[in-house]
Structure formats: C-alpha cells, structure tokens
Amino acid sequence: QVQLVESGGGLVQTGGSLRLSCAASGRTFSSYTTGWFRQAPGKERELVAAISSIGGITNYADSVKGRFTISRDNAKNTVYLQMNSLKPEDTAVYYCKARQGRIEYWGQGTQVTVSS
User: Could you tell me if 70 and 60 are in contact, meaning their C-beta atoms sit under 8 angstroms apart?
Assistant: First the structure.
C-alpha cells in the first residue's frame, strides 16, 4: 500500500514558479513509476510529466516541455515537479500517481492557479 500526499500548490502570477512535492509512504516507493497529472475545470485529466522508478527516464507533455522538470529523491520517498514560466493555462488541480504494473495509487491533488 502506498499513500501519496501532494503539496506546494498555490496562487502565482504569470511567469512565476512553483515546486510541487509528492510525499509517499511505503518502503517500496522507489519501485514505482511516478507521474504528475492535472485536471482543469471541464477538461479531462492529462499527463504532465512522468519519471521512472530509478529516475533515469522522464517524459513530458508537449505543453510543459522546457518549463517543467520532474525529479525524485527515493531516499526521501518524494517526487517533485518544478514549474517555471507558468501560464494561466497551467491552472488546474495537480495530482501525483504512482504505478507498478497494474497497481496504481493517486494523491488527493493540489490546486495551482496562475493569474494573468
């Protein structure tokens, strides 16, 4: 069992930065591929960025490439999403997901609001 708790969301102006954290319980967190997703009002949840269990492989949505960076510290059971050059269209609830095979765990989400 893995429990995920996101933090770091908030209100920021266009061009600003935020760093989201996803803290996980469970000794096997390092074996999970982890991703950040977001869901804006009226839209479907979409993948923002993902990172492999060891951290050597990352992938990003085209809309955030060059602005967002995903990383993980398995010693701290935490995955981060550094978000720079934020835009109003980045406004959404951001969720963390950990996956191993067909087993998935989701966090409760953290709100990110970018004002224009």
Answer: yes
β-strand pairing of 78-83 with 68-73: antiparallel
The tokens of 76 are what? 């701290």
Average pLDDT in the 86-98 region?
Answer: 97
Query: What's the CA dihedral at 61, 90, 42, 38 to 10 degrees?
Result: 50
- CA–CA separation, 108 and 54 (whole Å): 24
Question: pLDDT tens, 31-71?
Answer: 899 999 999 999 999 999 999 987 689 999 999 999 999 99
Dihedral over Cα of 41, 46, 49, 53: its sign: positive
CA–CA distance, 92 with 111 (Å, rounded to integer) = 6
